[in-house]
Amino acid sequence: METLTRPGEHAPTNPPAIAFSSVMGICGLGLSWRAAGQVLAAPRVIGEWLIAVGVLLFIALSALYGIKTVRDPNTVVAEFRDPTSASNFACITVAVVIVAAAILPRAPSASLFLWVSGTGGQLVLFLTLMGRWIAQPTEILHATPAWLVPIVGNVTATLAGVPLGFHETSWFLLAVGLVSWIAFLPLLLHRLIFCEDKLPQRLAPSLAIFVASPAVGCLSWLQLTGRVDTVYRFILFTALFFGLLVLRLWQLAVRALPVSVAW
């Protein structure tokens, strides 16, 4: 289902909510390099530089999106009310939580503030979207892989929640994310496989979200339990399968060129 945009709506000075997914990716990669530095003796400085870039990008996007909200609130409201783009707002809350995890070793107080803000915002957003999907007419074609961001976004809170001491809250968020993921995954696969109106080519890169969802769930389970057990392997190999599936569908992403914000 295509969404019409006005000229200049997604200019660098007028970013959409989904632009915050770049912060998720860069800071997430930095966290991975930080872990690799501890386990595999990889150069830690690479991870710290990636995190610094991600944090600076987060600050810049927050300022630009704040200006956009003040100058043109109708555009922001319309974006949130649009069923094809409302789930993109989870990119903001998840980015806040991932930044909290990234800066935790160096700025624990700021990390705590961001974690509480991002986690609370993520939960409220998910409840809002769930309520809307249930109470209002919702078409199956509105469902895209981007729906998994607010659904599984709760799980990312454990990455900083556990080190900050919020164990029970992290278990709650992991349960919400995993159960919701298991419930919505068949719906999304049904939409992609059986609906005659296939996923728009420009959204094909978003299929990679199918990999990210179980991958983050796997990390969160390890963070909470500290064990490589049956549940860990179940979620991990699910992520591996979806990774292979995305590689199998690489032609769809190539057709989505030129590169857009969906990448």
Task: Please write out the topology.
Elements: H1 21-39, H2 44-71, H3 73-81, H4 90-103, H5 108-135, H6 148-152, H7 158-161, H8 167-194, H9 209-225, H10 230-248, H11 250-255
Helix pairs in contact: 1-2, 1-4, 2-3, 2-4, 4-5, 8-9, 9-10
Count of structural domains: 1
Relative strand content? under 5%
Report the oligomer: single chain
CATH class category name: Mainly Alpha
Which secondary-structure class do the elements indicate? Answer: mainly alpha
Distance between the termini: 17 Å
The H-and-E topology, N to C, reads as HHHHHHHHHHH
Based on CA inertia axes, which overall geometry fits?
globular
Q: What would a concise description of this structure say?
A:
The model is unreliable at 1-9 (pLDDT under 50). The protein is 67% helix and 0% strand.
Keywords:
263 residues; mainly alpha; Glycosyltransferase; 67% helix; globular
Q: What does it look like?
A:
The protein has about 260 residues and is mainly alpha-helical. The protein has a single domain (about 15-255), classed as Alpha/alpha barrel (Glycosyltransferase). Helix content is about 65%, strand content about 0%. It is built from eleven helices and no strands. It has helices at about 20-40, 45-70, 75-80, 90-105, 110-135, 150, 160, 165-195, 210-225, 230-250, 250-255. Helix 2 (about 45-70) packs across helix 3 (about 75-80). The longest helix has 28 residues, at about 45-70. The chain is globular, with a radius of gyration of 18 Å. Residues about 1-10 have low confidence and may be disordered.
